[in-house]
Specification:
Spore Coat Polysaccharide Biosynthesis Protein SpsA, Chain A, GlgC_bac, UDP N-Acetylglucosamine Acyltransferase, domain 1, globular, transferase, alpha/beta, ATP-binding, glycogen biosynthesis, single chain, ADP_Glu_pyroP_CS
Length: 420
């Protein structure tokens, strides 16, 4: 009888760090934490880390929250409520709750885990996977956990391969011929190359695998260190590199993709990057495959009717070209090109949108012309508004990014209306 290989994911849990605001997204995170920001037409950013864990076979998860977490918590409660405790499945939401001191919230990424040691103990797991909740990618964590075990490492770090010229923006690592990490450097001016290619550098993805008993002891010692910033990248990882064995795991070895497709990972942490990653989905063959039924991105789906296109006159035709239009949208006599519209967006006659990312429940009035824009949730675009043709005029009322993308929120429109 052939014995089946045990999946290590069954003995693992995922701890997702989702407490940071993501201030570089500007007003998009005024009301919600970065992992709760919408992405891809119907998902939230957090759905990618959670879906990767679920698809990898992990059925025990914890989500640490802190900054403006209501939108994130509500989304997870609605869209991720299918875990069953009787099957030993869990998704616990762990808000910063002053568990040790009335003045002490989560002081850093490591502290967010340390303050919940008793909860992790109750899971009875052997391995803990630490994840950032704010990146877009598809990855089989089972392969990374197995690499960790086979290497006999104290920590295994998920790594991107980036050109040396671009690596100064990352925490990077030097490795030996077996990808054992010999030094960990935070945003160095002269990043190290790799043994197989001196022109590229391994950059940290903020993904770590530990044996729980090892990490538990490390966290307890760190909590007692008044000189620590209680952060994985600043404190725990450099200490392991110095005193133990840290293993690099290359993302290309576990990235989920079709044969021949590029490795896909995006930090959508700026308005330009957020806009670009969403608009890229309108390409004929986008690098991120959201149609993959073998590795779906799970999310909360509202019960809405199909998208609707109405009017068919020469200058008043409901149409969309090279665009993604979500359920509940009504394209009424509008022209949509290279754009992504989220759920329940309504556009009205004689309006046009080109390279627009429009978040749910927005309404675009007649004769509006919008180009290279991000429109926040529930914004009501007034009749005749023109954006994307005069950057100086746009900058008087809206947020214009370095890349020329205009972010529009309802507060901005209200201030504009009050001053006219």
């Amino acid at each position: 009888m052939v014995q089946r290989e045990e999946r290590l994911s069954r003995r693992s849990m995922a701890f997702i760090l989702a407490g940071g605001r993501g201030s570089r997204l500007r007003e998009l995170t005024d009301k919600r934490v970065k992992p709760a920001v919408y992405f891809g037409g119907k998902s939230r950013i957090i759905d990618f880390a959670l879906s990767n864990a679920l698809n990898s076979g992990i059925r025990k998860m914890a989500l640490a929250t802190q900054y403006k977490a209501h939108s994130l918590i509500r989304h997870v409660q609605r869209g991720w409520n299918f875990f069953r405790a009787e099957r030993n499945e869990f998704l616990d939401i762990l808000p910063a709750s002053q568990r040790y001191d009335e003045s002490m919230w989560y002081r850093g990424t490591a502290d967010a885990v340390a303050q919940n040691i008793d909860i992790i103990d109750s899971y009875g797991v052997d391995y803990v996977l630490i994840l950032a909740g704010d990146h877009i990618y598809k990855m089989d964590y089972e392969l990374m956990i197995r690499h960790h075990v086979e290497a006999g490492a104290d920590v295994t770090i998920g790594c991107l391969t980036v050109p040396r010229a671009e690596a100064s923006a990352f925490g990077v690592m030097a490795v030996d011929g077996k990808d054992v990490i010999t030094s960990f450097l935070e945003k160095p001016k002269d990043p190290p190359g790799t043994p197989d290619d001196p022109d590229v550098t391994l950059a940290s993805m903020g993904i770590y695998v530990f044996r729980w008993d090892f990490l538990r002891d490390l966290l307890i010692r760190d909590m007692q260190d008044d000189n620590s910033s209680h952060d994985f990248g600043n404190d725990l990882i450099p200490a392991i590199v110095r005193d133990g064995k840290a293993q690099a795991h290359r993302f290309a070895d576990s990235c989920v993709r079709a044969s021949g497709d590029p490795v896909y990972w995006r930090d959508v942490g700026t308005v330009d990057a957020f806009w670009r990653a969403n608009i890229d989905l309108t390409d004929f063959n986008p690098d991120l495959n959201l149609w993959d039924r073998d590795w779906p991105i799970w999310t909360y789906s509202e019960l809405v009717p199909p998208a609707k296109f109405i009017h068919d006159e020469p200058d008043r035709r409901g149409s969309a070209v090279s665009s993604l239009i979500s359920g509940g949208c009504i394209i009424s006599g509008s022209e949509i090109r290279e754009s992504l519209l989220f759920t329940q967006v309504h556009t009205n006659s004689y309006s046009s949108l080109e390279r627009a990312v429009v978040l749910p429940y927005a309404n675009v009035a007649r004769h509006a012309r919008l180009t290279n824009v991000v429109i926040d949730r529930a914004v009501r675009i007034p009749e005749g508004l023109v954006v994307g043709e005069d950057p100086d005029e746009d900058a008087k009322w809206f947020r214009v990014s370095e890349g020329g993308v205009t972010l529009i929120t309802q507060d901005m429109l209200d201030r504009r209306e009050a001053s006219l």
